[in-house]
Amino acid sequence: xxxxxxxxxxxxxxxxxxxxxxxxxxxxxxxxxxxxxxxxxxxxxxxxxxxxxxxxxxxxxxxxxxxxxxxxxxxxxxxxxxxxxxxxxxxxxxxxxxxxxxxxxxxxxxxxxxxxxxxxxxxxxxxxxxxxxxxxxxxxxxxxxxxxxxxxxxxxxxxxxxxxxxx
Amino acid sequence: xxxxxxxxxxxxxxxxxxxxxxxxxxxxxxxxxxxxxxxxxxxxxxxxxxxxxxxxxxxxxxxxxxxxxxxxxxxxxxxxxxxxxxxxxxxxxxxxxxxxxxxxxxxxxxxxxxxxxxxxxxxxxxxxxxxxxxxxxxxxxxxxxxxxxxxxxxxxxxxxxxxxxxxxxxxxxxxxxxxxxxxxxxxxxxxxxxxxxxxxxxxxxxxxxxxxxxxxxxxxxxxxxxxxxxxxxxxxxxxxxxxxxxxxxxxxxxxxxxxxxxxxxxxxxxxxxxxxxxxxxxxxxxxxxxxxxxxxxxxxxxxxxxxxxxxxxxxxxxxxxxxxxxxxxxxxxxxxxxxxxxxxxxxxxxxxxxxxxxxxxxxxxxxxxxxxxxxxxxxxxxxxxxxxxxxxxxxxxxxxxxxxxxxxxxxxxxxxxxxxxxxxxxxxxxxxxxxxxxxxxxxxxxxxxxxxxxxxxxxxxxxxxxxxxxxxxxxxx
Lengths: 167, 477
Fold this sequence. Notes:
The complex is a heterodimer of chains A (about 170) and B (about 475).
Chain A: H1 2-22, H2 26-46, H3 50-75, H4 89-118, H5 130-138, H6 142-163
Chain B: H1 3-8, H2 10-28, H3 36-53, E1 58-60, E2 65-67, H4 69-96, H5 101-119, H6 123-141, H7 148-179, H8 184-193, H9 199-217, H10 225-232, H11 235-241, H12 244-261, H13 265-288, H14 293-314, H15 317-344, H16 360-363, H17 365-379, H18 385-399, H19 403-429, H20 445-460, H21 463-474
Antiparallel strand pairs in B: 1-2
């Protein structure tokens, strides 16, 4: 059951990710991204990382993507026109990048297959609960946690400075 | 967490406190604005004292950071670079825009990012340090909000930087997937004992990390953004932009390669070799045809990243020492060179062409002499430290058997002489075109003294830095 659900979520996730990249209408892309995030949250739930899954839905699929939608609507972006012709330079770059990407996949896939087949089924049951995440954040990951807070402060200062008409 | 942990990040905490104080002063705005630079300089001075005064070594914050002579070496370079940037910024800001607290505070935040990157002993920290360094620089590149070129620089740097961050993160994810940890020691143990899920997965992760680093240090073909961003950013910021990220990213990459990935050298040395050759050739050849001094120095920076990559490739303690020595010399020289360009620059980004430097030696002999010294050191003329630094790096590469690489690098150094000498010829052998005065603000004098000490002093008496460089390199192994 879990395995079947995993493959379902994973297939939908990859499908919506491809849709995000290949679609020429930015609005459809954003909606597909929301759907992708929902599937990712599904995978987190299957891993029993409930807290992370909930955060994924609340923060990414909820807050951030709504912002994305608003921005796309406010900017009123028109769908991209498809370009014609195989001799277009972009297509050659694209072909080279696809070959490189497939090469990278060749390096990754065997390891990933072993990862799927070799990891024992049993794992710590409470790995995803709030208490465990909180403990990890405030003990072993204390310094990264604080530095991440610093990073957000800097981003905030930058946004205010760059975007405000008169300071 | 104990007091020792807090003590281990004391230099960073002092810088952060200074940055927050400056932000508060900016809001309250009661003190005269030209006092900001003194607050910033005092903070950096205190931080330098704490770096030198607390010689800690070992791992802190649960193995998140590791302190050693190496990190102290990078700390000192960082503080020197930031202080020099401040010295050149004050006159630049006063001439073009009122001084702002955010300007100094953002540079201070970037300095913390640089220091954390060198100290990182966990990929999480390396990543966060990298971002804490990059985000302030994205903002600072666009500091002149009314200037189109500044906006362009900022948006280009942000978009491409975010893209390279994606590569970096994906690399961390693959390594975590292969090994199950982001800690340097655990990854290294797993690689040595063959406990990864697959070597290919680990190496693919490392390749992606390499792309992230290559972007930050502007290795070809990831250097495309550099000329436009360096040209568009305010010149005083360009000075920091062309040196700060290079120092921090090369330091972090050196540590990552030596501590973690040294055993896999046979898999990736070819890539690094190619990156190095491509970078120095593209940088030098493109710099030949540049008339704008900022663009020329930008391509010169790309070329030097190629030489620096040799130090990463060699991977011996000699190579690491050569890299650290080169980083120290390159960063101070380039920073002061850009700072001097900022002094000669006129309103509306005018006066950046080589032709504007005609007869500068008659207008202001001090600026001309300092600029000539910086350029000669970058070109690697013998009595200057640029020559000594190149000698150490190339020598370590010859000892490691990379003969062809060194031959190409030497040919490249010869090519570079042409474009470094063009402004020198213009300054000393041409008559001035106008009678515009170029003044040397007294506040920048300490930076020029540092340049003379580094570029000339270390060229004649390198052993003063060699000792600390050798012990810094040795502490990595």
